């Protein structure tokens, strides 16, 4: 996955004609850290450990001028992104919440 992100970042740099403000990569026996910041406001940070757990974030400025930031964790529970631009499920209706509580408090007896 790390190599894929680097390739995507490199392609974005070539396609967008932007300059790299800062870039660092530190690969160790017990993990890695990688950072990239471009002069157009795009950036990514990522760190991983020897167990395959990765934490990171990426951000950019949308065409509408909005600053977009996503944070994520990738571990034994899968890829878990967080960000205000991601869709969220609708709230559970109150009637359903009451029904679930009733079912929990009144188990079926055979």
TrEMBL record:
Leader sequence segment: 1-16
Keywords: Cuticle, Signal
Domain of life: Eukaryota
GO cellular component: chitin-based extracellular matrix
GO MF terms held by the record: structural constituent of chitin-based larval cuticle
Protein name: Larval cuticle protein 4-like
């Amino acid at each position: 996955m790390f190599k894929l992100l680097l390739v995507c970042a490199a392609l974005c740099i070539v396609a967008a004609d932007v300059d790299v403000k800062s870039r660092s990569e530190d690969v160790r026996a017990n993990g890695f850290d990688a950072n990239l910041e471009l002069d157009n406001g795009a950036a990514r940070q990522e760190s991983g450990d020897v167990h395959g757990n990765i934490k990171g974030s990426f951000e950019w400025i949308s065409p509408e001028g909005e600053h977009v930031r996503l944070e994520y964790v990738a571990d034994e529970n899968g890829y878990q992104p967080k960000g205000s631009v991601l869709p969220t499920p609708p709230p559970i209706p109150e009637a359903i919440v009451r029904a679930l509580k009733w079912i929990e408090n009144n188990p079926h007896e055979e």
